[in-house]
Each structure stands twice: as structure tokens, then as C-alpha cells.
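# step 3/5: fold
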Amino acid sequence: MLTLDSTQLSVEAMTEGRFDEIIDAVISMHPTLTVVSETRTPASDRMADASKSAERSGIEQGEDLEQDPEIASFLEERIREHEASWIHEKIPALDGYTPTQAAADPARREDLIRLLDSFPETGNPGAMSPRRLRHSLGLDDGSAFWRAQR
């Protein structure tokens, strides 16, 4: 997730590789940028803190991204690519099954739905969209996924 606040861009990623990739991409678009500080926190700790903070404050993040359409477009493209690959990754919260496997398995589908329900729908171009994920996995109404799987 990237959040632009005036002249400061904050980057959050679930893996160090993605973090480094995003930093490199942003710096390649704007070579004059410099990293002011860097903190690496285990994703599980960060997600727990963010969830508690969002519940208490009700504040939406990422609204300032509209000020730089190039960054917003980059983020939207990257998150959609990530969502497309995420549905095929083994997810620990799904006992090592992929979201695609869990969606197709009636015994695991509820676990997947609970996982997607835990994702906030921020509208931020740098955040995964549970609505898009549900659609990709055929968990929304009128899904072609279930027709193709039957």
C-alpha cells in the first residue's frame, strides 16, 4: 500500500521483495526521490496494528494519491497484478490452499469468505479489493466461475 501525504510517500508491503520492488519502481519514475527512513515490521504485527487503528479512528487512507495520477495508475496496475497472482498462491490462513482451490471446495469456501471479509474495502489504488477478489473467485452473484466449474 502506498500513501502520499503532501511530499511524503509511505510504502507498506506484505513481503520484503515486494517492498523493494515498489521502492525501485517509484524511484525509477522519480529519480530525485530519496528514502528518508525505513522500518521493516512482520506483516502479522503490522496488520493487527492497522486493524485496531482503523477501528478506533474510522479514518480512510490514501486519498492524496489522486494528486499524482502516474503513481495512482502504477499502484492500480500493480495491485491488480498482485490480486491476479494472489488467488493462485498458497495462503496460510487457508491451511495452505490457494484461494482458487478454496473457492472451488465447499468445505473450504467459508474460510475463504471469512478471509475476504477481513480485508477492508478502502478504495485506495494501492490496496487489495475484496470486491474484485470475490468477483475473480466467483463468489459474487451471477458468477461465471461456478458455471465453468460445475
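# step 4/5: annotate
Residues 57-63, 142-150 have pLDDT under 50 and may be disordered.
# step 5/5: archive (pending)
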